[in-house]
């Protein structure tokens, strides 16, 4: 039984969507919730790298159910990266993508979960459309963007997609909004600050921090390995807001 389903979506690639999804899942698990993390980005599955799970494989039980990779007692992960060899690309058209997403939605033996966090590819293509259509009862979607106009334009399109799916948008995470000067501590904006539509509340803003990128590359989620940092504090606050919005 899965109690809550949470989608993390962006209109544009490279905005930190997977980082947000991974740290929400890891933070929820750290708080004692039973969490599944489903990576439906078939062409750029980064979740295994971010969790230090590169080289792991999915198994199938006697009932032909997919057994997730367990990172901790209460955090399970599924990604197509567990089914492919190295950096071999997935060269599929829509029907094959839909079939793969259907396998992930219908044939994974998650067990009892408090949360299923779904890390989606950028945009509103086959994978995310299949996910919304197959799951049907998604409890909330978090949109992720940087402040630049081209990213905001794309996240507005993602917002309209979620509305078309009759699903609830929890709000927006703005990523890489500024960098802190290591010498003077001044906050330096990385992008021109653009106006966000009022119906898309900003849940949290994150700065650009090279340590986050390094930790992510090493398979170490911020909420576990950057304890007491400003970034970890912001992720914890984001998770508390998500729990409140989902009624937990």
List keywords for this structure.
12 strands, 8-stranded mixed sheet, two-stranded antiparallel sheet, Rossmann fold, 248 residues, 23% strand, alpha/beta
At a glance:
This protein has 248 residues and is of the alpha/beta class.
Question: Could you explain the architecture of this structure?
Answer:
With about 250 residues, the chain is an alpha/beta fold. It has a single domain, classed as P-loop containing nucleotide triphosphate hydrolases (Rossmann fold), CATH 3.40.50.300. The chain is about 35% helix and about 25% strand. It has an eight-stranded mixed beta sheet. Helix 5 links the parallel strand 8 and strand 9. The longest helix is centred in the middle third of the chain and has 16 residues. The protein is globular. The chain starts with a strand and ends with a helix.
């Amino acid at each position: 039984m899965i109690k809550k389903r949470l989608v993390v979506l962006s209109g544009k690639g490279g905005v930190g969507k997977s980082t947000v999804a991974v740290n929400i899942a890891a933070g929820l698990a750290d708080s004692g919730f039973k969490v599944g993390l489903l990576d439906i980005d078939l062409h750029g599955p980064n979740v295994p790298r971010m969790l230090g799970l590169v080289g792991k494989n999915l198994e199938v039980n006697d009932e032909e159910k997919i057994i997730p990779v367990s990172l901790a007692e209460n955090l399970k992960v599924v990604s197509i990266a567990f089914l492919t060899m190295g950096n071999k690309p997935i060269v599929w058209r829509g029907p094959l993508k839909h079939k793969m997403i259907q396998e992930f939605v219908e044939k994974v033996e998650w067990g009892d979960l408090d949360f299923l966090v779904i890390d989606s590819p950028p945009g509103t293509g086959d994978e995310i459309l299949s996910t919304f259509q197959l799951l049907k009862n998604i409890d909330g979607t978090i949109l992720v963007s940087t402040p630049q106009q081209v990213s905001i334009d794309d996240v507005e399109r993602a917002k309209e997609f979620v509305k078309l799916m009759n699903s609830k948008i929890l709000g927006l995470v703005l990523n890489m909004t500024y960098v802190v000067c290591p010498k003077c501590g001044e906050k330096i904006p990385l992008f021109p600050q653009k106006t966000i539509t009022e119906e898309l509340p900003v849940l949290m803003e994150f700065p650009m921090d090279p340590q986050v990128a390094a930790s992510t590359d090493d398979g170490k989620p911020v909420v576990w390995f950057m304890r007491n940092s400003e970034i970890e504090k912001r992720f914890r606050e984001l998770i508390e807001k998500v729990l409140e919005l989902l009624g937990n």
